[in-house]
Design brief:
By secondary structure, the chain is α/β, with parallel strands linked by helices. It is 38% helix and 22% strand. The protein starts with 10 loop residues before the first strand and ends in a 9-residue tail after the last strand.
Length: 496
């Protein structure tokens, strides 16, 4: 990390700097923000608490840098992105160490996130060259009442300054999923990382610095949301916002004004299990989908809706698999690690207490030590329990027994979320019918919900978000159409 030579310039004493105009700087505020290690529950890092004046300078430099970057040949933009992908992979270990200490991500998964991010940057570079290198040519006589007197040329041009706000759970991968499309499309980028995950994000940004991107094109501002949050999202110099997180996104969408928004705001992903399902497959996917990274994933299985006739057998298989999970610190690569903050753990515990008071069946004893919560399956959950509707973002999973497919679909669609869902059945016809009926952005058939592969479209309905992600969709979202019309003095027809 800071001890390695490559990253020595991003830290001042024990405080990490912010990145502006191609330089690592100390905030004039003289204030810092502490980052607590979820495992030790002690302060692990400090970052700069930037002020509004510094935000203004960052946006102004981003605007200036974008003008020249937009004139940079497309192949050159792609070349630099390929270079940063290699730099990211080269420095995967120190970045992964930050993820372990900041967000308690298991060590192996932390390395995977960085490598995956490098692969994603390269994919954006390759796909961006194809998407942005191609325009359209239209002729006027294809519309009734017109002769061929107009030629229309369309191309994609950048929006300007893109503000990227990733979440704590994937502060590197979900940051580059916003940075790479912005840059290949000719935009500049201002990154506001989450507090938990900020140091990993700063290390990631330094990889862009090492790759040689122009000064001012990429900035990373850290600080308190109360000081710079609204100021950033409402800044007149920001031309696009890509946000991943929770309820804050709703407030941003109301304040941001007339700029493009790309938002993913969480989910209550339902898993519907039919009577003909492969229960071994379903059980393994429920555990993988519901408990990997301690359930702190937007696409985690959040509620199991299982037909009564197979419920006992399914619950038995899930419990057998849960018993094999290891619980402990992320450094030991445990399956279940501490949730990100004490307040998160308290929220999860509140859901558990509510379920207990209302008669849910506890398949395991509820156990908590600090931020570490042991995996828990709650059977016989009813719709009047909070856990049936609220997103725990932790290793607690409710099972609701249903008597018909329609009942399962109704529960899924009654949620205010609509990110993903899944259905397990051997009947592809039933699977398609259920998929069409589920009000979610994606439905997985015979697999747990997942965001990836990263080039697949990824979107939510209802309160789960605005717009769509994925490589092609993100590039298109961060551009606008420019049209040039050539007016001819008389109709022109080829091969007449």
């Amino acid at each position: 990390m800071a001890g390695t030579f490559a990253f020595s310039e991003i830290i001042d004493g024990d405080v990490y700097k912010y990145y502006s105009e191609g330089e690592w700087k100390v905030s004039s505020s003289g204030k810092t923000v502490s980052i607590v290690n979820p495992t030790t529950r002690k302060a692990q890092f400090k970052v700069q608490a930037c002020n509004q004046e510094e935000v203004n300078k960052i946006v102004e430099s981003a605007k200036a840098a974008q003008k020249s970057w937009a004139k940079t040949p497309l192949w050159k933009r792609a070349e630099l992105l390929h270079k940063v992908a290699a730099v990211l992979k080269e420095h995967k270990k120190p970045i992964a160490e930050c993820l372990v200490k900041e967000i308690a991500k298991p060590a192996k998964d932390a390395v995977t996130e960085v490598v995956r991010s490098g692969d994603l940057v390269s994919y954006f570079a390759e796909e961006g060259v194809r998407i942005l290198g191609e325009g359209k040519f239209l002729v006027s006589d294809s519309f009734p009442g017109n002769e061929r007197t107009k030629y229309c040329l369309t191309s994609k041009i950048p929006l300007g300054v893109v503000l990227a706000i990733p979440p704590f759970n994937y502060p590197v991968n979900l940051a580059v999923s916003k940075i790479a499309p912005a840059l290949i499309a000719g935009n500049s980028l201002v990154l506001k990382p989450p507090t938990q995950g900020a140091v990993a994000a700063l290390h990631m940004v330094h990889c862009f610095h090492l790759a040689g991107f122009p000064k001012g094109l990429i900035s990373c501002v850290t600080g308190k949301g109360s000081e710079i949050g609204d100021f950033l999202t409402m800044h007149p110099g920001v031309n696009c916002i890509s946000f991943t997180g929770g309820d804050t996104g709703v407030a941003i969408s109301k304040k941001a004004g007339m700029i493009p928004l790309q938002m993913e705001l969480g989910g209550k992903d339902a898993c519907i299990i039919l009577e003909d399902a492969d229960l071994d497959l379903a059980a393994s996917n429920i555990v993988k989908g519901g408990f990997s990274y301690s359930g702190q994933r937007c696409t985690a299985v959040k509620v199991v809706l299982v037909m009564e006739s197979v419920a006992d057998e399914l619950v038995k298989k899930v419990n057998e698999t849960l018993a094999k999970l290891t619980v402990g610190p992320p450094e030991d690569d445990c399956d279940i690690t501490p949730v990100v903050t004490e307040s998160s753990a308290n929220f999860i515990e509140g859901l558990v207490i509510d379920a207990k008071q209302k008669g849910a069946t506890f398949c395991q004893e509820y156990k908590r030590q600090g931020n570490l919560i042991w995996p828990l399956l709650l059977d016989n959950v009813r719709p009047d329990m909070r856990i049936a509707w609220e997103e725990p973002f932790g290793p607690v999973l409710p099972v609701i027994r249903i008597n018909s497919v329609e009942e399962g679909i109704h529960h899924c669609n009654a949620s205010n979320f609509g990110l993903q869902g899944c259905v397990f059945t051997r009947d592809i016809n039933k699977a398609i019918l259920i998929s069409d009926a589920m009000e979610t952005g994606t439905v997985q058939i015979n697999s747990a919900p997942a965001r990836g592969p990263d080039h697949f479209p990824f979107q939510g309905l209802k309160d789960s978000g605005i717009g769509s992600q994925g490589v092609t969709n993100s590039i298109n979202m961060m551009t606008k159409i420019k049209t040039t019309v050539i007016n001819l003095p008389s109709p022109s027809y080829t091969m007449g």
